[in-house]
Amino acid sequence: MFGMAKPEFGPYTTIDLTNSTLLFCAKRTKEGSYTGASFSSEGWDWDFSKYETVEKRKAYSMTITGGADTAELLFSIYRISNEKISPFWRINEQR
């Protein structure tokens, strides 16, 4: 189950929990960029950064049982994060 536990809900026990790859969705939106330099006694540092918003949704299917009763659940987890993307080069020169 790749690190996912089988939770219990009162009298109900989880039988199976699967990740549905059919309902996986990821969306990236570019938010802008930043270019700058910083100077210190140790040297100078150029910063070329880009920012983006990442939205991800994963769906799961769960089967639970409680005695003679069985229920099948479908739920999803939706996550939004703002990320800073480091460039493929970074200049850091020492004096």
Task: Output the keywords.
95 residues, mainly beta
Number of helices: 0
**Low-confidence segments, ≥5 residues, pLDDT <50?**
89-95
Separation of the first and last Cα atoms: 52 Å
Judged by helices, strands and strand pairing, the structural class is mainly beta
Number of strands: 5
Give the amount of beta strand, in percent. Answer: over 45%
Rg calc: 23 Å
The quaternary structure here is single chain
Binned, the helix content reads under 10%
Mean pLDDT over all positions: 78
Q: In the residues, how many domains can be counted?
A: 1
Largest sheet properties: 5 strands, antiparallel
The SSE order reads EEEEE
| Global geometry | elongated
Summarize the structure.
By secondary structure, the protein is mostly beta strands. It has strands at 8-9, 12-40, 43-66, 69-85, 92-94. The protein has one domain (17-88).
What does this structure look like?
Helix content is 0%, strand content 79%. By secondary structure, it is mainly β. The protein has one domain (17-88). Strands 1, 2, 3, 4 and 5 form a 5-stranded antiparallel β-sheet that branches. The protein is elongated. The relative contact order is 0.28. Mean pLDDT is 78; it is low at 89-95.
